[in-house]
Design goal:
Layout: H1 9-112, H2 120-133, H3 142-155
């Protein structure tokens, strides 16, 4: 009969138990690391989604800003055109008033001419009445200067 050499079972059993405990600890650490990795993946996906939303907001706000700037430029151009048109309308109205004042002076001359000469007193009365009837503001106010200038010219008064 062969006898087997004496083996220290308690030493090998303890080593196996320690290795088993180390294996279980490593598995627990591995599982915790996997859970951490899964959490980090979820967090990364959430952050990526938030970043995408923020980027889309930036793009939308940039487009809105550009549209607002374009509208502001368009409104500035429109305002400048309106001012130009208003100035043109005022100039045209003022020119019409000056023309009307010259017609008034000419009408006063025709109404004041007698058989031999100009009735200066009658002419001055007609011009004074036209001056009182002329507006004092707006484009019609230009009549006063024209009435005065042209009346002086007709009367031979240096101006």
């Amino acid at each position: 009969m062969l006898t087997e050499p004496a083996v220290d079972v308690t030493g090998d059993g303890m080593l196996a138990q320690e290795l088993l405990n180390d294996l279980r600890a490593a598995q627990a650490k591995l599982e915790a690391a996997r859970e951490d990795a899964a959490s980090l993946k979820v967090l990364l996906a959430l952050r990526t989604h938030q970043h995408d939303l923020a980027w889309q907001d930036v793009q939308r706000l940039t487009a809105e800003l550009e549209a607002a700037r374009a509208r502001a430029v368009a409104l500035e151009v429109e305002l400048a055109e309106a001012r130009t048109n208003a100035a043109s309308a005022d100039s045209a109205a003022e020119a019409d008033e000056r023309t009307e004042a010259v017609r008034t002076v000419l009408g006063a001359v025709l109404d004041s001419i007698g058989s031999r000469a100009l009735d200066r007193r009658r002419f001055q009365e007609i011009i004074a009445r036209a001056g009182r009837e002329a507006p004092t503001d707006g484009p019609g106010a230009a009549r006063h200067a024209v009435l005065l200038t042209e009346a002086r010219r007709v009367l031979g008064i240096p101006g």
